[in-house]
Specification:
six-stranded parallel sheet; single chain; ATP binding; 6 strands; kinase; Deoxynucleoside kinase; Deoxyribonucleoside_kinase; 8 helices; Rossmann fold; ATP-binding; 220 residues
């Protein structure tokens, strides 16, 4: 399948979401190349608390979460200042989902503190023109995490990833903040394969509102 964008206008601000290891950044970068967009990417490696978090989640959870919150909101503000009226961006995060990790990882008193900070910092976050939610089974997530070989991720427990999958599914079950495309990403090779990727791009170019589902197995 040849990818032809002639005469078709992609969403101007796309946010790609999903649990750890599902391929958010890979898809965001590829979409940015296809559409000649800028990227708005999380810099997990810049978080000085992340390795401590993976060694002892309870002890380092609040510091890790707040650092990511500050980082994400700073990136969004930079985007707004660069082109406040018509952002042309692909992001590998949706700020609305930030509390998901907080609910999973923080104690009640820590979560209350986090919520107060979150409410103050995210009030002006722009609305994406399309949110892409990548779904995959826990087995697939574990396999992809192992393949990408980041040392501090290798100790992630199945139960933790299963819990993240649950909260993501619940969040997007009720999400109506932007047009939503839910993608079965378990069998998609976003890093190397063209066929499924081209089908996905062709599909998303027609989305203007509502909730949509993309399953590559439907395309034979």
């Amino acid at each position: 399948m040849k990818l032809d964008l002639k005469g078709r206008q992609p969403p101007r601000y796309i946010a790609v979401e999903g649990p750890i290891g599902v391929g958010k950044t890979t898809l965001a970068k590829r979409l940015a190349t296809t559409f000649n967009y800028q990227t708005l990417l999380e810099d997990a490696g810049d978080n000085p608390f992340l390795e401590k978090f993976y060694r002892n989640r309870k002890q380092a959870a609040l510091a890790t979460q707040l650092f990511f919150l500050f980082q994400r909101t700073e990136k969004i503000q930079q985007m707004r200042q660069a082109d406040i009226f018509e952002p042309v961006q692909v992001a590998d995060f949706l700020i609305d989902k930030d509390p998901l990790f907080a609910r999973v990882n923080l104690e009640q008193d820590e979560f209350q503190l986090y919520e107060r900070v979150y409410q103050q910092m995210t009030i002006d976050a722009p609305r994406p023109d399309l949110v892409i939610y990548l779904q995959a089974s826990t087995d697939v997530l574990l396999s992809r995490i192992e393949q990408r070989g980041m040392d501090y991720e290798q100790g992630l427990e199945r139960a933790y990833l299963e819990r993240l999958n649950e909260v993501y599914s619940e969040f997007f079950l009720y999400y109506d903040g932007a047009p939503l495309l839910i993608v079965n990403a378990s069998e998609i090779d976003l890093a190397h394969g063209d066929r499924d990727y081209h089908h996905l791009v062709d599909y998303l170019l027609d989305i203007r509102s509502g909730r949509h589902y993309f399953n590559p197995t439907f395309f034979g």
